[in-house]
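Hi all, long-time lurker, first post. I run a small reading group and we've been trying to get comfortable going from sequence to structure in the token notation. Rather than ask abstract questions, I figured I'd post a concrete chain and ask someone more experienced to write out its structure so we can walk through it together at our next meeting. Sequence below, copied exactly:
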Amino acid sequence: MLSKLIKYEFKATGRIFLLTYVVVVALAGVNAAMLAVRPPSNSGLEVLYAGVSTVTGLLYGIAAFAAFLLTIVIVVVRFYRMLGDEGYLWFTLPVTPTQQIFGKLIPATVWTIVTTIVTLASVGLVTFRANWPSLLGSTWRSLASQGFNPGVWLVCGLVFILFSLLVNVMLFYAAIAWGPNLIKSSRLGGSVVAYIIIYVALEVINLVGVLVMVLMFANTFKATQTIPSVLTSADVAAINHAGAVFGTYFGIEYLILAVIGFFITRHFIGRKLNLS
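-- Answer (accepted) --
Happy to help. Here is the structure in token form:
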């Protein structure tokens, strides 16, 4: 049954997301083409080119921002509706609260990741003529020659981003599930208050974690203030170690917070469901 819920969710949201991606990539292509056909500075087309490129650049920026905003809105609204009037249909299905959550969570996470990838790819398309692939390659080789592990850092960064997305989605879900029980007279108002409470708690936890990490690796941070070319192998090893500890700590923290958010959501859906 879970597979059917996921399939339905993808089908219900796919058309909107795909259309958004097409618009973002198309506008990125237009801006890339504009940069490729830039007229000479002494031609009479400078004013026209400047006006058109400004408009297309502005439209692309709006579209890229709107893609992220639309993703958040759809993720929130789809779950909010399930716990509202649509809940009288959703919760008559022979599925568990866990399946209901994952039926929304998995598509939401996938669409958030795809939106991020499409947006970054569109930025790469627009800035391709700036020769960023060559710059990225030279930076990668430079870091590797100094003893850093850019591949490991990249993988850790991607995992950290994934866990961050998961935490944010679960934060919204937990707030929406808790909200109607927090303020019974206003489901929306309760969800907003619950979100603020959870968000502040998350920021406090992050702040404490950062302070602890800074105190643990104070000497390492002093080493990074030197010129990269004079970093010793011991400094590089210390920085790699600090990065690994930071990544592991926050990765575990975010994973735990996502699990806590899941159990909060399941608790209110399974035992204190309020669809009013």
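A couple of things your group might point at:
The CA atoms of residues 31 and 54 lie 9 Å apart.
The radius of gyration is 23 Å.
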